[in-house]
Structure formats: C-alpha cells, structure tokens
Specification:
Layout: H1 2-11, E1 18-19, E2 24-26, H2 47-55, H3 63-67, E3 68-71, E4 79-82, H4 85-93, E5 103-104, H5 110-116, H6 126-140, H7 142-145, H8 148-176, E6 180-184, H9 185-201, H10 208-231, H11 233-243, H12 246-264, H13 284-313, H14 317-327, H15 335-340, H16 342-354, E7 360-364, E8 369-372, E9 378-381, E10 386-390, H17 391-394, H18 398-401, H19 403-406, H20 417-423, H21 446-463, E11 464-468, E12 475-477, E13 481-483, E14 488-493
Parallel strand pairs: 2-3, 4-10
Antiparallel strand pairs: 1-9, 3-4, 5-7, 6-14, 7-10, 8-9, 11-14, 12-13
Helix pairs in contact: 5-10, 8-9, 8-21, 9-10, 9-13, 10-11, 10-12, 12-13, 13-16, 13-21, 14-21
Amino acid sequence: MRLLKNIWQQVMDINPFKGDVLPSRVYLFERGRPCLPFPHLLNYKTPLSLFDAFYTNAKSSDLFERDNRYLYVMGMPPVFITRDPAVIRAILLATGDKPGQFDRDTTPMTGIARVTGVNSLLYANGKVWRKQKQMSAGPFGKGSLFQPEEFHEFEKTFRKTIEKRLLVLRDAQKMSKKNISRVEIEREIQPIMLEMLVNNFFGGSVEYKELRERYVPALLSLIDYMITNTVAPNLSVIHQFITGKGADVKRWREALEDLTDIALSGRGEKSGHWKNFIDNVEDEEALRSNIRVFLAGALEATSSFATWTLSHLSRQPELQEQIYSEVKDIDVYDPESLTEAKLLNQCLNETLRLTPSLYFFPRKATADTWLKLDDTRKIMIPKNTTIRLDIWNANRNEAFWGKEISGYPADTFSPLRWDELTRRGITRKNLTHFGFGLGARVCPGQFLGQLEVGLVVGAFIKVFKFKAVNNAPGVRAGVTTKPDDGTLMDLELR
C-alpha cells in the first residue's frame, strides 16, 4: 500500500511532506546540473557536486523551499536533503534510540561496516548503539580527558610526539641549507595523528617509520576501498578479481588488524587511556570493531581538521603572527592556557565551520515524524525518508552565517566573526557549525580531536612561518574533506 501511495504521489506531483513549511521537489532529469542527483560510479568521488545537483534549479522566492529539497521517484520513499541549519539542528536533536526518533542511515557506511564490523558506534542503531555509546562515554568524555591529572598526562605525551616530529622537519630544512622548503603538509600530519592515537592514547608501541610507511598508506587505501565497496560492491569484487587487487585489499585489512592488536596491547596493563574504559566488555568483537573505526576514522577526521586549519592560515600570514604571539610562551598546554589562546580557538572553530571534516550526516525517518523548528513552524517527514544533512553548504549559507548575522561573508575564512557573534549576543547554542555533530550522536572523539589539532597547529606555528603555494585549493571529499593540493606550502624556520 505504501508503494502504491508513493507511486500515486510521484505521478500526480503531490508533496509527501506536510506542515507549515514544505521542501521543493527535485526532478530526476533537469538541465544545468553538475551531475545526476544520486550517487553512482561517475560521481561518487565528487560528492559535493552531488549535493549541488539538488540545489541547482531551486529558484523559489521562499528561502525554505530553496534550502530544503526532495527527490521522489520509482515508488521509493523520498530522499530529503537540507542545507537549512534550523532543520539540521532539529533533526540532529531528534536522533536517538527512542520510538519515533530518527535513526542514522547506514547506507553510506555499508562498505565501512564490511571491513570494520557492524556492531560499532558508527554503524549501529537502537539498543546496540546505546550500549556502544555508554562504553565510549568514559574514555572520550570531556570530564575524563580534561581532568587536570589526566589532561597533563596526555598533553605531555602528545606535545612530545609533535615536537619530535616537527624537529625532524626543522633539522631537515637546516641540513638542506635552504631558507624555504616546499612540503606537502598532509603527508607529515597523518603519521603524527596516528602516532598520537596508537602510542599516546592507547599506550601501544609502534615505530614512527612503520606508521608512516606501512600503516598510514594501508589505512588510506582501505578507506578508499570502503567507499567504492559502498557505492558498487559487486563491481568492486569483479574489479578485484580482474586486476588482482584482492591481494592488496587483504594486505590492507591485515595492517588494520595488526594496528588494532597494537592498540589493544596496553589494555591489560591499563596503559595509555585504557584505565578509563569499562573493565568487563561483554562483546569483544564489538570492542575490536570500535577500535578499527576509531583508528581509521580519527586518522581521517583529525588529519582533515589540522590540514584545513594550516591551509587557511597559510593564506593569512598576519593571523599566523597573531597566533604565534599567543602561543610562543606557552610551554604546557593545559585547559586554562588553551582557553587563553583565544585566536587559535577561533581559527579552529572557523575551520570546522567553513571546511568541516564531516560534510554531511545521514539520517532515516523511522516513522511519520513531526519536526518542530525553533521558530515554532512544523514539518512532517514521512516514514522511511532518506535524509542527508548537508553540513558543508549549511555552514556557507549566507542567510544564516553571512554579513548580516556575523559581520563577514559566509564563504570566507574569518575567525573574527566569532567575536562579532559574541558582541551581537549570538552564542554557539543559537548558531552551531555542526563540526562534530549535535545531540545524542555527537562525535565521541570531539574533545580528543580538539586537543590534538590545537596542539599540532600551535606547535607548528611556533616552529615555522608558512605560505601556501596555490592561491586557493579545491576540495577532495571522501569520508572526510581535505584540500586537494595535499596542503602544499613553503616552510621557513622562525
């Protein structure tokens, strides 16, 4: 009956949504779009173009209709995409494991689940997700990481790791006897981030050279494979058979398993952060699944966050110098000193707003759900609707983040907008950049990620002046977003 209803509504062009405000329809074949409005083998590597395809012909005078769009074809439930921060906020806050709440749509992560396991915090829904969330609350919570004794322990080990790696870069530049060295910073950041996770956070022991030469390439290749395996799993298997790539995939998976074993090796002695994990874990495979997801996901997310921040700053030398003045005398990055580095924190916030690592969130309606927006307007989202929360474009939405609201254009990197928002009485509660999500399914690693990236960026600025080689990078989007030039820059020692 629902299938017949869908077909009838689609043929008769009846909007399946109800309420005070309604999204506008996207038709399958329209001119002027960058690509078709659904993922396939020709567009899955350019997902931001896929989002743009939904908005290309949105010409309504109504802002809600332009920012909220739906595709409705072939008797399937609607696909709803939104770049409206108010709608995104409402849906994120209504996501959970209670009856009638939105689920996380697992469709974009099926390839990830086939490699890491289905019982992870990333993939699970309902009671399984709730159980995983409770397990992660202790070790990843701000109350744990930012306890003075705990914080100083991690800050010290993280800082030593960063300083050691940056000194290698510094010494290499000194030995070259060149004033300026050209470096792809992304390649330098990735092993640093993985080293902090495995050795510092989990208390494992793996050599930096092995991280750089084996584990980072294996994880990055495996992540690319997981994306392809999600979009076209059957073709992916055929391609492996024809090209012999199956041996490569096996080798990459073995590397992830070995790294998971290393991360788990400190569990018995409670080294690293293991002392804050629950002792009795009922499902050991679920624990391994979460470690696999965390190693791959955190490497991607923190590398994205750090490289975007450095990329933005490489085009604003005056901001570099101002941040240098903030951090040059900081020897211990405790919560108080990090708070005092106001401009550094504003740059981190602005990076998450303008170039978020996680550029969309997938959701699914488990029932016909009435969604109430902050201004009391309501919209009914039909059961089984596939939802894509377009964070990338929401954070560049001029009507919500532009000059009239923040004093600066929405599509520019302007950390001082956060001062202006405060001056105007607009708080993070009223205007959220969704950099780590929101609500019950907020990223559990957000505080760890902020700590890591703040330390990396602060330490980098203390050692180098840096300038972008390219005027403006494009965007490379996969699991996360990154500058498409590998964050290529010229380094000069201070």
